[in-house]
Amino acid sequence: MTQHQRLLIIDFGSQVTQLIARRLRELNVYCEIHPYQNVTDAFLADFAPKAIIFSGGPDSVTREGSPRPPKSAFTLGVPILGICYGQQVMMQELGGLVESGHGTAEFGRAFVTPTSANLAILDGWFTEGREQVWMSHGDHVSRIAPGFEVYGTSPGAPFAITADLKRNFFAVQFHPEVHHTPRGAKLYENFIRLAGFTGDWTMASYKDDAIAKIREQVGDKRVICGLSGGVDSSVAAVLIHEAIGDQLTCVFVDHGLMRQGEAGEVVSMFRDNYNIPLIAADESELFLGELEGVTDPEVKRKTIGRLFIDVFQKYADEIEGAEFLAQGTLYPDVIESVSFSGGPSVTIKSHHNVGGLPEKMGLKLVEPLRELFKDEVRALGRELGLPEKFIGRHPFPGPGLAIRCPGEITREKLEILRQADAVYIDQIRKHNLYDEIWQAFVAILPVRTVGVMGDGRTYDYACALRAVTSVDGMTADYYPFTHEFLGETATRIINEVKGINRVTYDITSKPPGTIEWE
Length: 518
Ligand code: XMP
Hints:
The strands form 4 sheets. A 9-stranded mixed sheet has the order 2-1-3-4-11-10-9-6-7, sandwiched between helices. The chain is of the alpha/beta class. It binds xanthosine-5'-monophosphate. The site of xanthosine-5'-monophosphate has 13 residues, from loops. InterPro entries: Class_I_gatase-like, GATASE, GMP_synth_C, GMP_synth_GATase, GMP_synthase, GMPS_ATP_PPase_dom, NAD/GMP_synthase, Rossmann-like_a/b/a_fold. Pathway: Purine metabolism; GMP biosynthesis; GMP from XMP (L-Gln route): step 1/1. It comes from Rhodobacter flavimaris.
């Protein structure tokens, strides 16, 4: 098995630490984020990083007891890049001075100008004699540590870019990982080149390693994988099947809340295309029966979650000798975040997943996507030959159409919703907008409205179209369709879908809205 060159990101709690990892992965560098509390001398020695990055963070190094990296980070002999808080902590630890208070803060856009041309990390960075960067700091460095020199300066940060070229320590006050530092990726590129990374983190090599790891973990035992039709579980299933063939059995539970034609597509794709042993369980009667009369969103979610676990377990029990359960867990779910607030956050929605299943069933986990971000899962899917149409699909929630049908769920409403949704998605595809949109769907509203068609009165359902742009689903904005597109889509839905006579467009962003209606 190949051993990738590894970079360690020590997280001091910045909101944007994950973006550092994203930028590095884009440069084919393997990196991991670990909270500063976990990075001990022993951890560092064991991890054996080829370079280290100190992230930003909300604390102040002037406060006693504020987060610190282990001292041995500075004696490992590997390049270090400190960002914002990471810069300040580096200066403080190496004999510089950081100050807080009046006049030290700087938030938002700033321009850095070079004070020297001689810096490998800046190679080709300053395009027009200055570069736009994003600052977000309350404290600033007022004296740099011995051995460091200044290479870039901004009005609010005299030591915006500093470096000790003997030790290959670099420290910047701004955030090169964010979008508002437009050429920030170049800084990371220069840093990793200087640190000797060869860009050995590619999907092809990842795939081979992952297959070898699965074989080693599973041996000759059997694995069960729950398929939802989404990208993550699909990629996990195909990858595991490549590794262990028919030792894998997939279980697909049709809860009767899938979109038009979706259940059939999943079954034919995995059973017919990939020849993966698949149990397709049509449990729609059970789910829809239990959901009868339920209108509260949380009760809907909890009911579906509970039934899903029962049903999955029932089918999994039929697979003899299964010792492992495959899950499409991704890296963002694994990263332990540095929590400064302490208290539990409010539950907005109880997300549906199969958490709890492995313990209940006494199964061990196989999680071959644990090291990947979402777009890397897509790249892996391509590497495995999954069709583009499948890989690029918008996310679809576990509770399915139940949460796009506010109020009571009936078979009639679900059927109308499926048809309207299919027309809407068809419109989006025809106008080549599908890939620009993070997620688009129709919600059927629990109101009937009066309309007129031909010479007759109609009294049918109203529906809402939703389309949002987003990076991770945490925040979102509505998609700015043209009036022509909206008008044409409304006409098509009303003409083609019996049961809907009014179409609205939801222009709420998240926050304050959420993406789904329930
Ligand atoms: P909200 O509605 O919370 O949705 O803004 C954010 C993203 O999460 C998806 N979503 C879910 N996914 N199980 C899932 O697997 C769920 O219970 C669930 N609820 C919402 C939603 O589709 C959007 O992409």
